[in-house]
Design a protein that fits this description.
With 315 residues, the protein is mostly helical. Helix 2 packs antiparallel against helix 8, helix 2 crosses helix 9 and helix 4 packs antiparallel against helix 11.
Amino acid sequence: MEEYFYLLIGFVLLLFSGKYLVRGSVVIANHFKISKLVVGVTIVSLGTSAPEMFVSSIASYTGFPQIALGNVIGSNSANIALVLAITAIIIPIPVRKNSVKIDAPFMVIVSLLFYILLLDYRVSRVEGVLFLVLLVSYTLFIVYKSRREDKVEEIDEDKKTSIAIALLMVILSIAGLAFGSDLLVDNAAKIAEDFGVSQRVIAITLIAFGTSLPELTTSLIAALRKEMDISIGNIIGSNIFNILAVIGVSAIASPMDISAADASRIVTFDMYWMLGISVALFLFILPFKGGILTRFKGIVLFLIYCVYLYFLFRK
């Protein structure tokens, strides 16, 4: 029964942390005159990717690269086909042209690069450094572009909050997300292990879902607050961060070798689904001038995720 209590505490922490991460991020966007989309792709994404960073880095360092890789691949699939799908089902999401022209294509390219580098069942330290260089370059580019081109509209209700309080809000929220996810994953894993589920399946489903809960709570709260740019920017940014930052840092900490038979299925099966789901999102948010992620598209993405889970447990 103790595991179920801590599981509940984890959920509550995620809910409140997600709420204040969105609020603090809006204030930061207003203060530094950058668009909320960029804040969603950078600050919010980094914060909601903290659980993946923690879980994957520790897993890789302690000799369980299949958990590290499965967590990232599973989280990226869940972020789009579960988190964004549920958000769109509740509230259709209008998509800005920068998401279509820059962020989503970059996410697909990074996912494809990840797949290519993983074909030898290994991610080296050099490849980890490459990922981090790409992440820094991408972040600097979108911030620079936003400062030059985007029109920033301030929200009156957020003028009451100082930048110092907003920064503290974001820091504490990120800590709450990481701690809440840790509580949830650890205790959910204890319950799941009793059923004899493999590390790969646990990583791709249970742990991936647990570490995607910050994205779910943050995106839902952002959507309910009509901060649609933060909602979709958070998901696309989180997927980019998961690959470039989480895998990059994990590989630098310890080169990732997944030559084991069970882990190799990550490359021959799970990666295909992650790539397919990423491409599907890109197609769903077209045209290039900006589209809408409708409830119907959300339902289609959710059904794709259900089919993926069916074949995952059947294999």
